[in-house]
Amino acid sequence: MTDIAALAADLGYRAGWAAVRYAPESAARIVFDRAGGFAGRRNGGPDQLRRNLARVIGVADPADVPDELVADAVRSYARYWCEAFRLPAQDRAAAASTGTLPAADHARLDAAVSRGKGVVLALPHTGNWDMAGVWLVQHYGKFATVAERLEPESLFNRFVEYRESLGFEIFPLSGGEQPPFGVLADRLRAGGIVCLLGERDLARHGVPVTFFGERTRMPAGSARLAIETGAALFPAHHWFEEAPYSSMSVGEEIDVSGGVETATQALADAFAENIAAHPADWHMLQPLWEADWTDRQRARMNETGGAA
């Protein structure tokens, strides 16, 4: 990203947080929904999103992905940003009350937390993971997570401040005082909760998995943390219901006795099951599978031994 583009991005996000947070909720939701619908239908919608959704619904030709699904997916992504821009001005308890976790899943999470050995929640980029985090803070207190190092630094700081204002403890994925793995492990050994977005290998040190029948790589951090600390590892999911409501799930505990690659594959399988149930709420507009990587991305993967 050029310096000018990075500055423009920062100014755009700053304007969004400044303007949308105080706008009437109904008006803001209408504007974002219509903008998302338009973007989702214009020229068939984002090409990479369509390619990704083709894997999810099991069609070989991305052209066979229903246009309405693509439009719904972009509207869902627009809803994420509408809610993100409004969250800083919302009452946290009221925001958390719009999310529902089934009683059995809540009991599963309660039991793991009460054991005092730490909990790792791994989830894909679905629904509104920030809103899921607000729910978690309201029920269990602060949790730790990582943040991608964005450019410019002012934009990165803006996102860190935003999520810290929601009650999250944020550590940079790169460029921090120390690598995040050690401090996250410390939080788990103290009985805390760590939440990690788990299907994009931003650090390029992932392990190979099969995801919707195709090869890709996913971050190994969630499995490695659970193995090295003894924390419980769970797949989690968040998806949208009729605005402003949403639903969540915490799946069965992942068996990590088979090692990092086996546990990461189990997470990938859980992610796939949940994404397939709510395909429009998966916000994946980037190339994820190896078949979609550019030559440059492949070269970077070969250099690092991880994903592009």
TrEMBL record:
<keyword id="KW-0808">Transferase</keyword>
<keyword id="KW-0997">Cell inner membrane</keyword>
<dbReference type="Pfam" id="PF03279">
    <property type="entry name" value="Lip_A_acyltrans"/>
</dbReference>
<keyword id="KW-0012">Acyltransferase</keyword>
<keyword id="KW-0472">Membrane</keyword>
<keyword id="KW-1003">Cell membrane</keyword>
<protein>
    <submittedName>
        <fullName>Putative acyltransferase</fullName>
    </submittedName>
</protein>
<dbReference type="GO" id="GO:0016746">
    <property type="term" value="F:acyltransferase activity"/>
</dbReference>
<dbReference type="InterPro" id="IPR004960">
    <property type="entry name" value="LipA_acyltrans"/>
</dbReference>
<dbReference type="GO" id="GO:0009247">
    <property type="term" value="P:glycolipid biosynthetic process"/>
</dbReference>
<dbReference type="GO" id="GO:0005886">
    <property type="term" value="C:plasma membrane"/>
</dbReference>
